[in-house]
C-alpha cells in the first residue's frame, strides 16, 4: 500500500495587521517560504511535480494563480507547475490533502503543499466587495435563498449560534482566550517555534501574542454584535503569513535521500450546517478517528484553528479531548489566522510539536466557510 510522508515543514512568522510583514507583497511572502522549504530539505526543486497553494482572497496582488507566481518569484524551475485553491479558511490544509492524495494515488512522488494570505494587503472580503460595487449579486443565489431563506450568513453569527447551542458565556470564552495568549507567549519565550520559522523582513517571531493581556482588559471590550458574547479578544486575529510542506512518496524519499518526518494516516472532509458554519470540525473528527481506528485518547497533539473561542471549546466538549493537548502552544486567538495560509502553518506547528515532545499521533482540523472542515491525522516517524 502506498504511503505519503511529510519531509519538510516551514513557515513564516505570523505578522499582525499592519505589522512587520504588511509591506511584503503576498507573492514574495509565499516565495520566501517555498525557497526556505527547498533549502531546508535539500531536494532538487526540478523534481517537484506540483505546487498546490491555498489562498482565500484571490484578488488583486493575490490573484493570477499566486502558487505559480510565488514559485517563479522564488527563482525556482519554470518546469514546475502551480495551482491555487480555495476551501476558505481550510485552503492550505486542503492543499496538504490534495498533495497527499497525489502521492497516495501513485501518480505523483513529490508535491509541495502551501498557503499564503496577506490580510494587510488584501483585506478579508475584498473580492465580495468588488463584486457588490459593480452591481453583481452576493455569492448566494436564488437556489440558496429557496433552501435557507434570505437570512444572515456570517462567521460572526455562526460563533454566536454556537455559544447559544453549547451554553458558553462570555467569561468562559475570555478565559480560553487568555490561556491561548499565555501558551503562545510561553512557547515563544522557550523557543518552541524557532526551528519552524523562516524569518523575513526583520521579523523573527509571531507578532500577535499579548502576554500582558488580562481578563479585566478583555471584559472591557464591546461585543462584535449587539447583545452578543463574542468580542475581538475571543476571535482570531487578522494576520499575514505563509507556510509550506513537502509531501513525498517512499520512492522519492529513496531517490532523493530525504528524511521522513511524519506519515499521513488519515484524510477526512465533511460538511455541516452552513448557517452555523463553524461546527463541522466535530463530525469531521469523528469520521477521521473512525477511519483511522484511533480514539481521541490516542492523539498526542491537536491543532484546531481558533477562529472563535467557541469552536475549540465545543470540539473539546463533544470529543472528550484533553484540553492540555489542544493547541498546546496557543492558537489563532493569540497567534493570528492568515486565512489561506493557516492550514499549512498549523500543520507545520503540528509536525514540529510532535518532534519536540516525542508524541506519536497528531490531529489537525479547522472550521471553513460553507460549514465544512478538513481533518488530517499524522504519525511522527
UniProtKB/TrEMBL annotation:
<dbReference type="InterPro" id="IPR020613">
    <property type="entry name" value="Thiolase_CS"/>
</dbReference>
<keyword id="KW-0808">Transferase</keyword>
<dbReference type="InterPro" id="IPR002155">
    <property type="entry name" value="Thiolase"/>
</dbReference>
<feature type="active site" description="Proton acceptor">
    <location>
        <position position="337"/>
    </location>
</feature>
<keyword id="KW-0012">Acyltransferase</keyword>
<comment type="similarity">
    <text>Belongs to the thiolase-like superfamily. Thiolase family.</text>
</comment>
<dbReference type="InterPro" id="IPR020616">
    <property type="entry name" value="Thiolase_N"/>
</dbReference>
<dbReference type="Pfam" id="PF00108">
    <property type="entry name" value="Thiolase_N"/>
</dbReference>
<dbReference type="GO" id="GO:0003985">
    <property type="term" value="F:acetyl-CoA C-acetyltransferase activity"/>
</dbReference>
<dbReference type="InterPro" id="IPR016039">
    <property type="entry name" value="Thiolase-like"/>
</dbReference>
<dbReference type="Pfam" id="PF02803">
    <property type="entry name" value="Thiolase_C"/>
</dbReference>
<feature type="active site" description="Acyl-thioester intermediate">
    <location>
        <position position="89"/>
    </location>
</feature>
<feature type="active site" description="Proton acceptor">
    <location>
        <position position="367"/>
    </location>
</feature>
<protein>
    <submittedName>
        <fullName>Acetyl-CoA C-acetyltransferase</fullName>
        <ecNumber>2.3.1.9</ecNumber>
    </submittedName>
</protein>
<feature type="domain" description="Thiolase C-terminal">
    <location>
        <begin position="260"/>
        <end position="380"/>
    </location>
</feature>
<dbReference type="InterPro" id="IPR020617">
    <property type="entry name" value="Thiolase_C"/>
</dbReference>
<feature type="domain" description="Thiolase N-terminal">
    <location>
        <begin position="5"/>
        <end position="250"/>
    </location>
</feature>
